[in-house]
TrEMBL record:
<keyword id="KW-0597">Phosphoprotein</keyword>
<dbReference type="GO" id="GO:0006355">
    <property type="term" value="P:regulation of DNA-templated transcription"/>
</dbReference>
<feature type="domain" description="HTH luxR-type">
    <location>
        <begin position="149"/>
        <end position="214"/>
    </location>
</feature>
<keyword id="KW-0238">DNA-binding</keyword>
<dbReference type="InterPro" id="IPR016032">
    <property type="entry name" value="Sig_transdc_resp-reg_C-effctor"/>
</dbReference>
<dbReference type="Pfam" id="PF00072">
    <property type="entry name" value="Response_reg"/>
</dbReference>
<dbReference type="InterPro" id="IPR011006">
    <property type="entry name" value="CheY-like_superfamily"/>
</dbReference>
<dbReference type="InterPro" id="IPR058245">
    <property type="entry name" value="NreC/VraR/RcsB-like_REC"/>
</dbReference>
<dbReference type="GO" id="GO:0003677">
    <property type="term" value="F:DNA binding"/>
</dbReference>
<keyword id="KW-0804">Transcription</keyword>
<dbReference type="Pfam" id="PF00196">
    <property type="entry name" value="GerE"/>
</dbReference>
<keyword id="KW-0805">Transcription regulation</keyword>
<protein>
    <submittedName>
        <fullName>Two-component system response regulator</fullName>
    </submittedName>
</protein>
<dbReference type="InterPro" id="IPR001789">
    <property type="entry name" value="Sig_transdc_resp-reg_receiver"/>
</dbReference>
<dbReference type="GO" id="GO:0000160">
    <property type="term" value="P:phosphorelay signal transduction system"/>
</dbReference>
<feature type="domain" description="Response regulatory">
    <location>
        <begin position="3"/>
        <end position="119"/>
    </location>
</feature>
<feature type="modified residue" description="4-aspartylphosphate">
    <location>
        <position position="54"/>
    </location>
</feature>
Length: 220
């Protein structure tokens, strides 16, 4: 069973998340927290595999709690939940070791998928969050990031670029393999190679880099 901690200051939100997650046979919500400080203390004393943290919480916000969890409970994988998707929050979350970033209006099955991915050691960024964060960004810095991203991607092979483009769309290894007619294991090998070449810590960082570069999946 995947043991989950849900941290949100709204009881109704916590109840809804609990109902969604416990509908999966392999997930158990073992604890809840009303603020970031309580989430950190609970994770310190309770066996937890994945923590879902709302960004906006009293006492200690989700991003600060994420940083503290990295120190006191490094084995806990953290997914950040929010009603908005500012890029700065995504980058801060990834910088502190978040396993993913989800919008609260994500589909129930996506939440379950994200928890499973995090528990398996993978990073997850919802396609909706990716589009909201990257596609709506309009600033002079975006041009600079795009140029830098394209420079970093220049060292990839054509096949690696195809795989990375699908990561940018939020596809799992299995889905990317189906699209490219490759086995899931082969895609996983490509992903590892891509992360090394791009000096990315996880697939979410690589996905954001792909989006910055304007990398699009090939047709078919």
């Amino acid at each position: 069973m995947i043991r989950v901690l849900v941290a949100d200051d709204e009881p109704l939100i916590r109840a809804g998340i609990r109902m969604i997650l416990t509908s999966a046979d392999d997930i158990d919500v073992v604890a809840e927290a009303r603020d970031g400080r309580e989430a950190v203390e609970t994770a310190r004393s309770t066996a937890v595999d994945v923590a879902l943290l709302d960004i906006q919480m009293p006492v200690l916000d989700g991003l600060t709690a994420l940083a503290e969890l990295g120190r006191v409970a490094p084995g806990v994988r953290v997914l950040i939940l929010t009603t908005f998707g500012e890029r700065d929050n995504v980058l801060r979350a990834l910088g502190h070791g978040s396993a993913g970033f989800l919008l609260k209006d994500s589909a129930p099955q996506e939440l379950i998928h994200a928890v499973r991915a995090a528990a398996a050691g993978n990073a997850y960024l919802s396609p909706a969050a990716t589009r909201h964060v990257v596609d709506t960004l309009a600033s002079p810095a975006a041009t600079v990031r795009g140029e830098e991203a394209r420079r970093r991607l220049a060292g990839l092979t054509a096949r690696e670029s195809e795989v990375l483009a699908l990561l940018g769309e939020g596809l799992s290894n299995a889905d990317a393999g189906a699209r490219l007619h490759m086995s899931e294991a082969t895609v996983k090998t490509y992903v590892s190679r891509i992360l090394t070449k791009l000096d990315c810590e996880n697939r979410v960082q690589a996905a954001l880099l792909a989006r910055d570069a304007g990398l699009e999946p090939t047709a078919g």
